[in-house]
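Render this sequence as a predicted structure.
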Amino acid sequence: MQFEQAGKHRPEILDKVQEHKPLEFVKHLLKNIDHLLGIVGEQKPESLTSYVANLETRYQQLVKTDYLSSKSIDVSPFLTELAHLSKFPRLVGMLLNYHFQLLQLPRENKGENEVIEITHRVFLRSALIPQYINLQVLTETVARYEAIQIYKHHVTLYVRKRIADQEDQHQTLEELREDSLKTDPENPIWLRMVGEVEDGKLIIRKDCCYWADALEDLSDSELKYLVCCYGDFESVKTYNKRFKLTMEHTIAAGDSYCDCVYYDTRVTKDFTHPSKEFFDSI
């Protein structure tokens, strides 16, 4: 099989400055943990109170600045759509303060429409580190294996709801391949080696990951993989609901590449993942 290189690894992308609306984005962060609390309540109800208490303890240790007070932010509007998190307003306050701390938010009050300039690295860390912490605390509250299974179930259902109206962007794997080869000088795609579509399969080896680069100081590679990569197995349906993804190695988990294989289930039922030796040889 022939492979074609697309994109390039440009670490400086993480230092690119972008505009960001913190009070708008934080709603997504809270919806994510609200959903996780709901799954914990369903699958491990006897541990929910302990989990929330442990989260509050962890975030209390991490938060250095009370942005809610200095910026006169009322948390109550955030609670209206949070069926589970609304029962724990103290935790909501801690989550918001820590998120703002990761954003390096100015302390002065600029109103609910505040726009700040942050690097892409800061944005990624503000979005991903709270998820990592939420999962880490869950592994410390219940058995690690149980925590990971709960988290996987949460991610699958949460992504499924989020992409419900985004499915079927491509009709075929050939269309996905063409998209994977496109380059934009202003926003270069991640370095990847793109194969040809054969027997209902498209193989892509991704050779860099800015998400993993932004989280290189976090020590638990399994948790990083779950936070950064696990949602890909469900979000592949944004390409087409009949597509399936297999992936056994990822950069976030400490590997040197991500070995992605996309299948069109209308064409093949053979989901045998190629060997590491195959991907090493590309």
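Summary. The chain has two domains: 4-8+167-281, 15-162. The beta strands are 4-6, 17-20, 116-119, 192-194, 201-206, 243-247, 258-264.
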